Structure formats: C-alpha cells, structure tokens
Amino acid sequence: MSTAQGARARARIEVTSAIKDEARRQLAAEGAAKLSLRAVARELGMVSSALYRYFPSRDDLLTALIIDAYDSLGEAAEAAHAAASDTGPLRRWVAVCDAVRGWALGHPHEYALIYGSPVPGYTAPDTTVRAASRVGLLLTRIVRDAHRSVGVARTPIPVELRPEAERLTADLAPDLPPEVTMALVAAWAQVYGLIGFELFGQFNRVVEDRETFFRYSVSRIAHEVGLVFPEKE
Amino acid sequence: MSTAQGARARARIEVTSAIKDEARRQLAAEGAAKLSLRAVARELGMVSSALYRYFPSRDDLLTALIIDAYDSLGEAAEAAHAAASDTGPLRRWVAVCDAVRGWALGHPHEYALIYGSPVPGYTAPDTTVRAASRVGLLLTRIVRDAHRSVGVARTPIPVELRPEAERLTADLAPDLPPEVTMALVAAWAQVYGLIGFELFGQFNRVVEDRETFFRYSVSRIAHEVGLVFPEKE
DNA sequence: CTCAAGCGAGAGCAGTGCTCTCGTAAGTGG
DNA sequence: CCACTTACGAGAGCACTGCTCTCGCTTGAG
C-alpha cells in the first residue's frame, strides 16, 4: 500500500532521504552548528527554497536527524546484544555499553546532538521519545533477564526515595525490585557520563587507555544494578 | 601595579567585562547558538566592528565565557565545600555534588557550554584546563582527606588497568591507592552523567523527585570511591 | 609638543534562515 | 480526453549573521 503509489510520492521520499543523507554528511563533518540548509541544497543541485517543500525549517531537519540517530544507536546496541545473546548478563551489559560507546565515538556529532546540549529552544517532540528509549529498554531487559534467572543483589534505598522508586518500577519493569530499577536509571545516566567525558575531551591528558577504563567502569556500574560481578571473563 | 595604570587600560578592562556581561546575559537567555556579536554590540550602544578590538572573534568571546563559567562553577563548589568543612567526607562529597548540580540547573546554557557538546571545531586552549579541573581537584581532596583520616575501602582492579591506574595516581593523588584514583575519575564522570541527563531532559517523565534521586545516586557513587556509607545523616 | 598606537564608526562582503511569487509539470475528476 | 487542482523548483528578496577594511578622532608615551 505504501509502495509504488504514484511516482510522485516515490520521488518525494527519495528526495527527502537524499536531503537527510547530505545533511547527515555535513553534520558528521562539521557539527550541527555548521549544518546549513543552503549548503545542503547546493550540494543536491537544488535551490534553497525548494528544500522547504520537504522540511518546514532547519529545526525540523535536525529533528529528523535526531530521530534517525537514536534509531541508529539503538540498532547498534541491539545488534551487539544479539551477538552476545548466549553469554551471561554481565557480558551482555558490557557488550551493549561498548556498542553505545563505539557508536558515540564513530558518530560524535550525532551523539552530541542527541545526548549533548539540546539545540537552542528545542524541546523533544513525542516522536523522539520512543526512539530515544531503545537503549534504556535494552539495558532494562538485560537486568530483568538476570533477575529472572539468577537473581540480583539489592541495596536498600532510603525511605524518601521509596515512592519514586516504586513509581519508576511500575513504569519500567514491574517484575524488578524497586532498588534495582532505581539503580538502573542511575546506571544508564552514569554510562552516559563516562561516554560524554571521553567524547567531549574531559579525559584528555587524564585517561589514556579509555577502552579498558570504560569496560572496567561499566562493569562496576553493572555490579551496582545487581549483575553478578565475578562472571567468567 | 595593575591598578590605575592609565585611564586607557582601565577603560579597556571595563568595556571588556561589559561585553562579557552582556554576552553572558544573552547566553543565559538564548543559548550559545543564538549569542550574536552584533546583538551584544547593539545592546552596548556600540557598533559591531568596535567589538573586535576586544575579542578577535566570536569563538574567542565564547572561550572567555567558558573560562568564567568554569571558575564560577568551581567557586560554587568550593563554597559548598567550605560550608560543610566540619562534617564528614561523605557529606562534603554530597554537598559539593549538590552544588555542582545546583549551579548547572541555575546556569543550564553555561553548563551545556562547558560540559555539553563542545562548539563546532573547538579545541580547548590550555588556559581553560586549569579552570576546568577545579571541581575534580576538590573531589580529589575530599577523598584524599578521608583516606588520611579513616581510610577508604578498595576494590581490586584488573591487571590490564594497573598501568593506567598507576599513571593516574601519580598525576592526581600519589597518596591514594590506585584503585581509588581510578574510581574517582569514573565517579566524577558519572556525576556529570546524572546532571547531564537531568539537565538535558532525559529524565523527563522518568524521574520526578530529581534532587532526592541525585543525592542518593551521588552517595552511592561516593561509596564506590571508598567513602564510608553509613555516615550519620 | 609630536606622533604612533588604540579606538569607534561606517561601509561592505559573503553567508545564513526563511518568505513570497511565478511558471511548469504531474496527477485527478468530469 | 480535457480541464483543473495540486505539488514542486526557481528566483528574488528581507533581515540577520561574522568578519574585514578604511577612515578619522583621541589618547598617552617619547
């Protein structure tokens, strides 16, 4: 139904994706700030005003790129998870984190776009939310599986956090103990912190062997969410 | 020697700081992307070209703002530390982290500027490094004090990380065990991750009581660097 | 007192996002 | 099969940006 319904429509999605491709190229090359509609149009051999038939504004183009980036990152993470599906939870956890880091290093500007400072007056439309949560859901799944199979360690949480933890658990993973959901959310943020520091140069002249450092830190974070530590290397 | 050496020089530093103030205002209001030299000049009643007598380019203005932001953040952290100087290490740790988070929430655009995605082709000049490391040094000091007074817990690190950990220790805190320095660097990155996720909206519709969540998470991270956990509330 | 240096003003260049209008080509209803 | 609406590309134009260059005035050092 969506295929071959008029050459017009087909051409439209083709041009749309050509615009996104060229925009992604410029984004990767120069960063979001230097992404220019006119330059994209120029490169595609069209005039700038024509581009507005496809994206109503530069921000809309950026939003489209952001969603694609989330999806690309999510796919990379899921692929890594699938490749490690026959190993234990800890190794899968590390594999997924590694994949996220790898994607971030390979697509620094796109990573910055989705996890760095948001563009000026930008608030994420709901469309992005689903794409954005893929990695988080994946990590949740790993912990959930681990919980089902071997059980996870728990650290008590203070009373004032209990309501928060229970709401979170109900939303994310009702089958997990609240302590774990809590730690899981924090863990994901912490992994993001490690990647961000590396990517944005805060580790320059501080950490040298960043891959080893990352793997180690991420393992410790995994321990925090209850994944058993002394899993066979 | 630096005071009152010619009205010319005095006027210069006055205008320079007036420019920075107005630029900071625009930065806070609209974000780095919308900071415009011409708008700054306009607001100050001068013509845009005059501004180039003080800052050779827009990037140089931004760099100046970045250094000031680092200093402002560092001061906030150090003030919080001083205010909690008669308490235990864990509470001081939490106080400093809290101050950093507070500063970040109060200056989101400036925080984004220094810890979010770096501006386009920008590489931090050495001038910024010193200002940038103030918070890290402060956290190091807390852990170092704790180590001297009560000792800190250690978690063994894998062999492949030993050289890294030892180099790091030599650079940062020779009096600390390598396991701790290692964990400390990771901890700082993780704290940054928590703040970043909150600031950039990743906790929207996920975490509600963010202050409590942050304090708790930061306490757990403190535990990771060996600060004793069951310190009296 | 002289004179080079510092400074502000203005014009100007190349670039940007975005709007509007105008022909033309494509697909649709009669 | 033909008229008509719709989608689209081109072009001109507006307001804005960072940045450069030149021109005079002011200032402070020699």
Radius of gyration of chain A: 21 Å
- The multimeric state of the shown protein is homodimer
Mean pLDDT of chain A: 90
Shape of chain A: elongated
N-C termini distance of chain A: 50 Å
Order of helices and strands of chain A: HHHHHHHHHHH
Major beta-sheet overview of chain A: none
Number of strands of chain A: 0
Q: What proportion strand of chain A?
A: under 5%
**Helical stretch count of chain A?**
11
* Structure classification of chain A: mainly alpha
Stretches with pLDDT under 50, minimum 5 residues of chain A: none
What is the structure about, briefly put?
The structure is a homodimer of 233-residue chains. Chain A is built from eleven helices and no strands.
Structure commentary:
The structure is a homodimer. Chain A has 11 helices and no strands. The first copy, chain A, is mainly alpha-helical and about 230 residues long. In chain A, helix 4 (about 60-85) runs antiparallel to helix 5 (about 90-105). Chain A is elongated, with a radius of gyration of 21 Å. The relative contact order of chain A is 0.11. The model of chain A has no long low-confidence stretch (mean pLDDT about 90). The interface between A and B is large, with 60 and 60 residues. The structure holds a DNA duplex (30 and 30 nucleotides).
